[in-house]
Design a protein that fits this description.
- Two copies of one chain form a homodimer.
- By secondary structure, chain A is of the alpha/beta class.
- The first copy, chain A, has 13 helices and eleven strands.
- Chain A has helices spanning 11-22, 34-42, 67-76, 91-100, 144-156, 166-190, 204-210, 217-226, 228-253, 259-283, 308-317, 351-363, 375-385; strands at residues 3-7, 26-30, 55-60, 80-85, 107-112, 133-137, 160-163, 296-302, 328-331, 343-349, 368-372.
- In chain A, the strands form two sheets. A seven-stranded mixed beta sheet of chain A has the order 2-1-3-4-5-6-7, with helices on both faces. Chain A has a four-stranded antiparallel beta sheet with strand order 9-10-8-11, with helices on both faces.
- In chain A, helix 3 (67-76) runs parallel beside helix 4.
- The radius of gyration of chain A is 28 Å and the shape is globular.
- The interface between A and B is large, with 125 and 125 residues.
Chain lengths: 387, 387
């Protein structure tokens, strides 16, 4: 790829342009707002002018509802040999694009899974897509050449191409992106009606839950509208859960003098704890940030002296990252051994790290043993220890 | 304060004990689970034994529903002269405590607004409360001495005491902590039912929205039950918003061939954008992480050369932190001056930083001017520039 046109110099378009410019591609920038294109050019993203001949690829970085019209106009003036978009919804915009385009075979839908809270060219970064998935959704009529060129751009930006069907993509992002945005907005909207002095008690948890409610409501309205069918399914299930929660909270808020009242409260409590447990189970669906499997553990005996465990954890931290996350502490006597009041500490770790930690701790004078092997034996030991 | 008893050596109890131990206080640790108390002691949080004489203060770091019973038992064995708790709900636990305690005047309700996703003594940190608010909710019968001793502990931990009524505290944390937890759980629970391959598309936004759904469902059930009345009010409003959203999504997902269908879609869109806008307005209720008022701005003219804006932003970054967050770029010709294709960049900043940045940029050869004064003139300039 030697030439690229970017139509729409917002966060995503300008970031694509910066990444391509860095790799030596000549980039032509345009935007409905000429100041935005000039800003992107002044940031080093390319030239704020029209190419004199068709470029290798045009990236249409415009809202979902504009993709069809912008594609048709670009093809009519022969802007590029191949076209792709970056809209975060695929089914409806791709259908519109294929319907309106003079040559639908030269278009392939795309969606880089990357973003920031801030929008506009000033927020753009050449490394925005590094290591991120970038969905490509070719239609039946898409030419191999078009898909190949789009894939080349994805790799140029350091992203990971994920070829998928539009419908599957839209169902997935409804759950991972669009409904979370709505949930953050629903929560944030409640804050307007909070009691005086409420904000003193706001902590990081509230900030995290509501963070993504920032963002252009016009653009987000466009995105949500384009994926309304997929989103509606998830929101309907959410609504059913919330209805059950309202009932449960009413049962819990009621007085509990009599036996039937206590039974009702217990029912409300079960509904609520069930929701909390399903939430924890849902989190397990997210890929772990660290993908290593702990198939071994380091066992260390610790006496009862004040601060001895702190010293062990500090010593371990020199060899492995954040072992406190998964460390298990048990009474030494649960195994019938060890000094009275002593503790046994276990660090679940991948095998190689476990061996490294064992050697390191032993060199420091700790009574460390490396236990390799199946998780089953480990579970049995935990059960024994927690009695 | 010279002696402290901590009953319950989980995350909060052990963190209080670590903070007090560091300040030279003798701390006595106990827990229903003796291994937990021994673990806290081995971390350097204090002694895992009962005091021989009443201590100055006992911190009851137990779940909300246990505060009353644990307080009564502690007072009967004269554990301390003054008692406080750390439950994140105040009305119900304090009422139970005052009802069951042999001497209610010696008890004052407390709640440090600090936490981590992880629980248990291993997650404890001496600096957990630094700069965080710590609510104290004295009742009519609370002695001045009890409130004074509790306040001393708060300051010892580096936290900020906030004396407030139980009811006001509970209404505030329902909104800032309890409902956000439920919202995170509701969203996370949906992930169990996602399509195959969904997790490839999970990004930081989803992780942030659902992060606090981690956490012990038993303890959280206890907390939510104790504050059910306040939570129910907020959740009911959330439910009403969500019902409107379901209707709006159904309208948006329907076909829009005819004129009445288009009108319905427009209605759905307005409902959704209204929700998004209310979310953005709600976020404004949260205190800004940086409290400085931008009462001045630095104005810099930039030519049309590629990358020149990038060089300006890099130069500015040497003098002020993250100026890109608020930078405004406009066309130079909107003021009738400047080179054709040139831009004017404005950095809104507190007055002293603006002067510092102006001097620094001028020294680097940039055409920078510092504009002091009221925001009104600035708004007028923005309006002119955006035409």
């Amino acid at each position: 790829m030697r030439t690229l046109a970017v139509v729409g110099t917002g966060l995503i378009g300008t970031s694509v342009a910066l990444a391509a410019s860095r790799r030596g591609v000549t980039v032509f920038l345009s935007d409905r707002d000429p100041v935005s294109a000039r800003t992107a050019a002044a940031l080093g993203a390319g030239l704020a002018e029209e190419p004199v001949a068709p470029v290798d690829l045009a990236v249409l970085a415009v809202p979902p509802s504009a993709v069809g019209t912008v594609l048709a106009a670009a093809q009519r003036r022969s802007l590029a040999r191949v076209y792709t978009d970056v809209a975060s919804v695929k089914s409806v915009p791709v259908r519109m694009a294929l319907r309106q385009a003079p040559d639908p075979s030269r278009f392939v839908g795309g969606h880089p899974l990357a973003g920031r809270e801030r929008s506009g060219p000033l927020a753009a970064r050449a490394d925005l897509f590094l290591g991120r998935p970038w969905a490509l959704t070719p239609a039946a009529c898409t030419s191999d050449a078009a898909l190949g060129t789009a894939r080349e751009l994805v790799e140029l930006c350091g992203a990971v191409p994920v070829v998928t069907r539009s419908r599957d993509h839209d169902d997935a992002v409804a759950l991972t992106s669009h409904v979370p945005h709505l949930v953050a907005s629903l929560m944030a909207a409640r804050l307007r009606e909070g009691p005086d002095g409420m904000s003193r008690f706001a902590g990081q948890g509230l900030r995290d839950v509501t963070r993504i409610a920032h963002g252009d409501s016009g653009l987000w309205g466009d995105i949500l509208q384009a994926n309304a069918a997929s989103i509606a399914g998830v929101v309907r299930d959410l609504h059913a859960d919330l209805s059950r929660l309202v009932t449960a909270l009413d049962l819990l808020a009621a007085p509990d003098g009599s036996e039937p009242e206590r039974a009702e409260r217990a029912r409300g409590m079960r509904t609520m704890v069930d929701l909390l447990d399903r939430g924890i189970a849902g989190l397990a669906q997210l890929p772990a940030t660290c993908g290593d499997v702990a198939d071994a553990r380091v066992r260390v005996a610790v006496g009862g002296r004040p601060g001895e465990l702190r010293r062990l954890l500090d010593a371990a931290a020199e060899f492995v990252v954040a072992p406190e996350e998964t460390v298990v502490v048990q009474a030494a006597d649960a195994w019938g051994g060890g000094a009275d009041g002593g503790l046994v500490v276990r660090f679940p770790l991948p095998s190689d790290l476990a061996e490294c930690l064992t050697a390191g701790l032993r060199a420091g004078g700790w009574a460390a043993e490396c236990e390799q092997g199946a998780e089953r034996g480990y579970s049995a030991a935990r059960t024994a220890g927690s009695e």
